[in-house]
Amino acid sequence: MKSPSYQRRLLAVVLPALLLLASLPARAADTLYLYNWNNYISEDTVQRFEAHCRCRLKQDYYSDNEEMLAKLEAGAVGYDVLVPTGNAVESLVRRNALREIDRARLPNLRNIKREFLDTWFDPGNRYSVPYATSVTLIGFNANKMQELGLPTDSWALIFEPKHLKKIKGRVTVLNSQRELMAAAMRYLGHSVQEHDPARWEEAKQVILRAKPYWAAFSNSTYIKDLAIGTIWVAHGYSNDMWRAQQDAAAAKRPFAIGFATPKEGAVLAVDNFVLHKSGRRPDLAHQFIDFMLAGENAADVSNLIGAGNPNGAATPRILPEIAANPGIFPPPAELQRLEMLRDFDPKLRRTLSRMWTEIKVR
Amino acid sequence: MSEPRTQPSGLTKWVVTLPPTIFLLAFFLVPALIVVLAGFRETGEFGGLAPLPQLSLDAYRFLGGDVIYLEIFARSFLVAALTTLICIVLAYPLAWLIARSPKQRRDFLVLLVILPFASNFLVRIYAWIMLLGPVNLLYTPFAVIVGMVYAHLPFMVLPLYTNLEKHDPALLEAAQDLGANAWTRFWRVTFPLSLPGIFSGSALVFIPVLGMFAVPELLGGTGDILIGNLIKEQFLENRDWPLGSALSIMLTICVLLLAGLTAWGSKRGLHGTEAVT
């Protein structure tokens, strides 16, 4: 096996491979690196942007903020643009990981509705530009709810045993400490940004009382479960509920999926474009963000996945059934009752995690 | 190539063993040490870790002062033990059948056993969602066990088959000549000889099941949380790296103890084999 000809053959394979590797960066000169949520920008939009900037847009994907933050914290570099949710923006700003936005290069920023600018996580929008929104709410099998006479406009549907008795084993809630406990907090009339552990303890009790009636904690399977009819009530994100609604209609199911924001209030998530410090092409990044701020491009994400849209110029280009859906586009009065999740200090985080573990085990 | 060499030369030995050694040092030992260290550090204000000088036993103290975490460990061990047991019961006849089938067909049968690996693990688990959903068994502890057994069965079949294939049929004939019935032949000859296979198969099933988080997350109900889920939650959603690290270290210690036990057990099994042969 150790004949010289073998070694020569090995070299013949390895050397060209190395040369190929070395030549890659040169070809990647005009490329914008976007670290994005799965399925969060339509293929059309990408192609139009690539034609517009005569560059390439390369995407990596994550499925939650924590995954993205963990990867960046572990030292991932080279991403020009990220799409974090509000609390993750705050966290990135505090860690000094973001590049300031040059607003002079973003003329289309005027398209953003005023209520989505100048938020607590980035006063004055020094670092972030809002892209899309979702509300954490309740999705339901409309026919079943009517049949059983259940209220669909309140968190009571997933927390009150007297309602749950009728739908035992047909309910899923998010497998997310932050989201589920926030829902219970709103149901109790507390803020989701509450700092008093005693209040959170109340939320834990509400959850423990309701838990025996739930089928599962589910972060993704509820879309399919709702659409095929095995689950009747799900706690989840508005864009997922929209998807389940579309799927059920497309499969001509004998029932319809509805979703509504509970009257007690809910969690609003705003995802934003930000520039990561490690990005090599802030020029392309600004170009990209401004392109995405144009109404016709901003509208695509709403039409693609049923996301809410902070862009006023996009509204006329969004399908009417999406634009008129109060679960996706909260009316101004309802917007007052929506709160964003905010990160807590390590001590409260550990306390809440302990409560969450107890919820899972009991 | 002219004369066969059994002992590789010094240089070849280095060339062959260096890359895997470096790989293991860089990608296993160093990260493991980082995790050990992280367990003694404090959480940073916005996730991650606080600056280095602060070292503390906080994470361990937090875990130690609470039976709830012990409960999850106990539950995970129970699930892993049950999965292993079911795998042994299911895999043994299958491995035995393959080992006893005609030689030219064996490779094909082994190929069938590992064929599921050709598709992605998560896709196969999603298939179980489709299968268990309509019969109302989804989101139950039963579904978790089914998923675990399904995912790990080949890891039990293969070592068992490798072991059973090597058994000398003459032993069974001799036992028969000496008046042993079918059950006695199995229990006194085949089974003791197959113990090393059972031990290595059990290690290959038990240890991964302990840390598995995808199966309980996708198939499990509201109470099916295992250590794997707990650790994942600390690193991702809760961003409490010290607590996650402390949990990982505790799990690793448990696994190492078990692996040691298995190694010891299979050695004993081998000695038993020598006694029989």
Describe the fold and architecture:
The complex is a heterodimer of chains A (362) and B (277). Chain A is an alpha/beta fold. Chain A folds into two domains: 31-133 and 269-330, D-Maltodextrin-Binding Protein, domain 2 (3-Layer(aba) Sandwich); 135-267 and 342-361, Periplasmic binding protein-like II (D-Maltodextrin-Binding Protein, domain 2). Chain A contains 16 helices and eleven strands. Chain A has helices spanning 4-27, 43-53, 65-73, 86-94, 142-148, 156-159, 161-164, 177-187, 197-210, 221-228, 238-250, 282-293, 295-305, 320-323, 332-335, 346-361; strands at residues 31-37, 56-62, 81-82, 98-99, 128-141, 171-173, 216-217, 233-237, 257-260, 266-276, 338-339. In chain A, strands 1, 2, 3, 4, 5, 6, 7, 8, 9, 10 and 11 form an eleven-stranded mixed beta sheet that branches. In chain A, α2 links the parallel β1 (31-37) and β2 (56-62). The longest helix of chain A has 24 residues, at 4-27. Chain A is globular. Mean pLDDT of chain A is 91; it is low at 22-27. The two termini of chain B are 38 Å apart. Chain B has helices spanning 10-38, 58-64, 67-100, 103-114, 121-132, 141-165, 169-177, 182-211, 214-219, 227-235, 241-276. With 277 residues, chain B is mainly α. Chain B has eleven helices and no strands. Chain B has one domain: Orthogonal Bundle (MetI-like fold). The model of chain B is unreliable at 273-277 (pLDDT under 50). Helix content of chain B is 75%, strand content 0%. At the A-B interface, α3, α4, β7, α10 and α16 of A face α3 and α10 of B.
Q: Would you identify the CATH architecture of the largest domain in chain A?
A: 3-Layer(aba) Sandwich
Shape of chain B: globular
CATH evolutionary superfamily of the largest domain in chain A: Periplasmic binding protein-like II
Q: Percent helix among the residues of chain B?
A: over 70%
**Sheet with most strands of chain B:** none
Percentage of residues assigned to helices of chain A: 40-55%
Backbone CA Rg of chain B:
23 Å
Report the strand count of chain B. 0
Low-confidence stretches of chain A: 22-27
Distance between the termini of chain A: 61 Å
Count of the domains of chain B: 1
Number of helices of chain B: 11
CATH topology of chain B: MetI-like fold
Biggest β-sheet of chain A: count, sense, barrel?
A: 11 strands, mixed
The named CATH superfamily of chain B = MetI-like
Q: Which structural class best describes the helix and strand composition of chain B?
A: mainly alpha
CATH architect. name of chain B: Orthogonal Bundle
Oligomerization category of the chains in this entry = heterodimer
